[in-house]
UniProtKB/TrEMBL annotation:
Its main location: cytoplasm. One of its GO terms (biological process) is Mo-molybdopterin cofactor biosynthetic process. It comes from Rubricella aquisinus. PANTHER family: FORMATE DEHYDROGENASE, SULFUR CARRIER PROTEIN FDHD. GO terms for cellular component: cytoplasm. This is Sulfur carrier protein FdhD. It comes from the Bacteria. The active site is at residue 101. It is found in: Cytoplasm. The keyword Cytoplasm applies. Belongs to the FdhD family.
């Protein structure tokens, strides 16, 4: 099912493309668990990535995803295996996630500050990998090229470079979509490239993906750096061309090397 991702509107300077932003409900067993404001694209990936990050179920416990248009939005109806569905009902909660805040709706400080899983995969990137990864990330942002108003997350694999990019008006949603794509395709852990700042939740999401390296064009928060240190994730930030800063686990990043420049 295809939904429009952008609309062309008139302005005093001429027609401009603007991204669509719609309420997307994520429902399990007929009950809405969350409503996120999102770009209506790659919705199956979004459903899987959100489910994994929230710890609701594993990929194998997701039996079916149905995309259902509803008045003023979209309902992603996710059917889980019986055991996973029972576990969700035991801890069911509701939350709403506006574009700018992926933690809105959590009910306690402990939920917001849950420990990220330890990343066991290892990976080494050189400065050429980072430069070319960023170049590929920009090239594959088709919706951003039209609207200049969405974020992107890309998956980089050794010897292949950027193999997938997902876009959304929300940076958290873009990374959920990428995580869902990687899980559905069975990709091994790689580096994640993002177009936004590095907040603590972006680190948590990367760790859930098992990504040992997170590269961003903007800066991290102090809490994100501490979370990355605890989870074993290498943070590369302020990445523009050949210039970048490495905040944690610097041994994974080599400068002046070009042994693998995918």
């Amino acid at each position: 099912m295809i939904f429009p991702t952008h609309t062309v509107l008139p302005t005093d300077q001429g027609a401009r493309a603007v991204p669509e932003e719609v309420p997307v409900a994520l429902s399990y067993g007929g009950t809405t668990h969350a409503v996120m404001m999102a770009t209506p694209a790659d919705l199956e990936d979004f459903a899987v990535g959100f489910t994994l990050y929230e710890g609701i179920a594993t990929r194998d416990e997701i039996e079916e995803i149905t995309i259902q248009p509803v008045p003023d939005g979209i309902d992603l109806q996710i059917r889980l295996t019986e055991g996973a569905g029972d576990s969700l009902r035991d801890r069911h909660r509701r939350m709403a996630g506006p574009v700018g805040c992926g933690l809105c709706g959590v009910e306690s400080i402990e939920q917001a500050m849950r420990a990220a899983p330890a990343v066991t995969a290892d990976l080494t990137l050189c400065d050429a990998n980072i430069r070319r990864g960023l170049e590929a990330l920009w090239r594959h942002q088709r919706l951003h090229e039209e609207t200049h108003a969405v974020h992107a997350a890309g998956l980089w694999l050794p010897g292949q470079g950027i193999v997938a990019v997902r876009e959304d008006v929300g940076r958290h949603n873009a990374l959920d979509k990428l995580a869902g794509f990687a899980a559905r395709q069975g990709f091994a852990a790689g580096a994640v490239f993002i177009t936004s700042r590095i907040s603590v939740e972006m680190v948590q999401k990367a760790a859930v993906m098992g990504a040992p390296v997170l590269v961003a064009v903007s800066a991290p928060t102090a809490l994100a750096v501490r979370m990355a240190e605890a989870a074993g994730v290498t943070l590369v930030a302020r990445a523009r061309g050949d210039r970048f800063e490495t905040y944690t686990y610097q041994h994974r990043i080599t400068r002046g090397s070009s042994t693998d420049v995918a």
